[in-house]
User: What shape does this take?
Amino acid sequence: MKVDFNKMNKWQKIKYVQERNGYIEDNIGYDDNGNEFRDDNGLALQVNATKIQARADASDYIQETCELADSLMQRILAEKYEDNIIGNDDDGYCYTEDGQDFFNELLDELENFLGKFGVVNGTAYENEEYI
Assistant: This one.
């Protein structure tokens, strides 16, 4: 099947990049080796992927991403999860310094992942235009 980027819409182009483990930088699609994607006509894959598609309410976004990051942390660490928290049922719990670092890394990765699909914390883009 012949590849022609001019016949693809924005979402088809994004899917094309994602299916090939690529990325979009400065509105150009690249493969995982940093080479531009080119169609059968030699044209580079150009897509305006900088617009925000879904802005979540800040409180919902923060709550949901933190809960998911903590859930991932529990699954990854398994029995070692409890070594990374301190506290009790009466006073509450918090992460140890190492636990907090690990949680922050997971949260950053999760937010980057969601951002690839246009899901962002809405307050970060208050002055931007909605799609």
In short: The radius of gyration is 20 Å. The chain has three helices and six strands. The mean pLDDT is 86.
